[in-house]
C-alpha cells in the first residue's frame, strides 16, 4: 500500500457514480446504530435532500458494556439495505467477525473494521479475500505504522479496495472522548496511495465540536468525512452525545463542501 510501490492514488468505485479517493470529497453520514425502519427512512430522506450518497449505521455494535444495545444484527442490515437500495444510497457498516462476512456480503457496499478490530488479523485476512471495499479504522491506541500494516493484511490477500480512517486515539486528556489526530492525514497521504478519511464524531466525541473538527479534517487533506447523525440525537441508542441532528448535519455538509472547494 506504499506510495513507493504505487504512486497513483487509489480510487474506489462503489458503482452508480459513487467514487471514493483523490479528486472527490466523500461524505458518509448516519446513526451510530441502526435502530428501526422509521429511523432509516428519516436518515435516507435527509441524505437525499443533501446529495449524500453513502449512509453509515452499525448493526453489529462493539460496546464497552455487554448490557448496552448491541445492534439489530442481520435482520437490521437487510432492512437497511432494502431502504438504501431503493433510494440509490450506498451502505457502510461494521463487520465484527469472520463468520459474519458471508451473510453480510450481499447487503454491504463498504465493510467497516472498527477501532477495536483494527489488528484482528484473521478478520483482515478474510476481508482480503472478500471482493468488497473495506474502511479500516485506526486502533484505539494504534500507531500509523500499525494501521498501515493492518491494511497490508487486506491488500496482500488480494483486496486493494481499502480506505484508511483516523478516528481519534486514546490519551491522558479526558476533556473529550479521544484525541482526533489530524497529523495522521497528511502523513498517511504521503506514505500510502490509499484514500484517507476522518471520523470526527468518535474523534472528539462531543457533538458541539464535530463541525469544527470536520472542517479541520477537510483542510488537513482528508478524502472524506464519516460522522454520526440522527433525527433525535438525545434519544439515540448509542453515541448520542457525539451525534448531530439533521439541521446541524445539513450545515456541516454545506460547510465541508465549501471548504473542499477552497482547499
Ligand atoms: C462506530 O463507527 O460506531 C464505531 C464503533 O467506531 P470505532 O470503531 O471507531 O469506535
Ligand atoms: Mn458510534
Which SSEs are present, and which pair or pack?
Blueprint: E1 12-13, E2 19-20, E3 26-30, H1 37-49, E4 54-56, H2 73-85, E5 90-94, H3 98-104, E6 110-113, H4 121-129, E7 134-137, H5 144-156, E8 162-166, H6 184-191, E9 196-198, H7 200-204, H8 210-220, E10 224-228, H9 246-262
Parallel strand pairs: 3-4, 3-10, 4-5, 5-6, 6-7, 7-8, 8-9, 9-10
Antiparallel strand pairs: 1-2
Helix pairs in contact: 1-2, 4-5, 8-9
Bound molecules: phosphoenolpyruvate and manganese (II) ion.
Q: Can you give a write-up of this model?
A:
It contains 9 helices and 10 strands. With 263 residues, it is of the alpha/beta class. It has one domain (12-262): TIM Barrel. It has an 8-stranded parallel beta barrel, surrounded by 5 helices. Strands 1-2 form a two-stranded antiparallel ribbon. The longest helix has 17 residues, at 246-262. The chain is globular and about 45 Å long. The relative contact order is 0.16. Manganese (II) ion binds next to loops. Keywords: Transferase. GO terms for molecular function: 3-deoxy-7-phosphoheptulonate synthase activity; aldehyde-lyase activity. It comes from Pontibacter qinzhouensis. This is 3-deoxy-7-phosphoheptulonate synthase.
Amino acid at each position: 500500500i506504499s506510495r513507493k510501490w504505487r504512486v497513483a492514488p487509489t480510487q474506489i468505485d462503489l458503482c452508480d457514480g459513487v467514487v471514493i479517493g483523490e479528486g472527490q470529497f466523500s461524505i458518509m453520514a448516519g446513526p451510530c446504530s441502526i435502530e428501526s425502519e422509521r429511523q432509516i427512512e428519516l436518515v435516507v430522506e435527509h441524505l437525499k435532500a443533501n446529495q449524500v450518497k453513502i449512509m453509515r449505521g452499525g448493526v453489529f455494535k462493539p460496546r464497552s458494556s455487554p448490557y448496552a444495545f448491541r445492534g439489530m444484527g442481520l435482520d437490521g442490515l437487510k432492512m437497511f439495505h432494502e431502504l438504501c437500495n431503493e433510494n440509490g444510497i450506498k451502505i457502510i457498516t461494521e463487520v465484527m467477525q469472520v463468520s459474519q462476512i458471508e451473510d453480510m456480503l450481499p447487503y454491504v457496499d463498504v465493510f467497516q473494521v472498527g477501532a477495536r478490530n483494527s489488528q484482528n488479523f484473521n478478520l483482515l485476512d478474510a476481508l482480503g479475500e472478500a471482493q468488497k471495499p473495506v474502511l479500516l479504522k485506526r486502533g484505539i491506541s494504534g500507531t500509523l505504522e500499525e494501521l498501515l500494516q493492518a491494511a497490508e493484511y487486506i491488500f496482500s490477500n488480494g483486496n486493494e479496495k481499502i480506505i484508511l480512517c483516523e478516528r481519534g486515539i486514546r490519551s491522558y486528556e479526558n476533556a473529550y472522548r479521544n484525541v482526533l489526530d489530524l497529523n495522521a492525514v497528511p502523513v498517511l497521504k504521503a506514505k500510502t496511495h490509499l484514500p484517507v478519511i476522518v471520523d470526527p464524531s468518535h474523534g472528539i466525541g462531543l457533538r458541539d465540536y464535530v463541525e469544527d473538527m470536520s472542517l479541520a479534517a477537510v483542510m488537513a487533506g482528508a478524502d472524506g468525512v464519516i460522522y454520526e447523525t440522527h433525527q433525535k440525537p438525545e434519544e439515540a441508542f448509542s453515541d448520542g452525545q457525539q451525534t448531530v441532528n439533521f439541521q446541524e448535519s445539513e450545515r456541516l455538509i454545506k460547510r465541508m463542501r465549501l471548504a473542499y472547494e477552497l482547499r
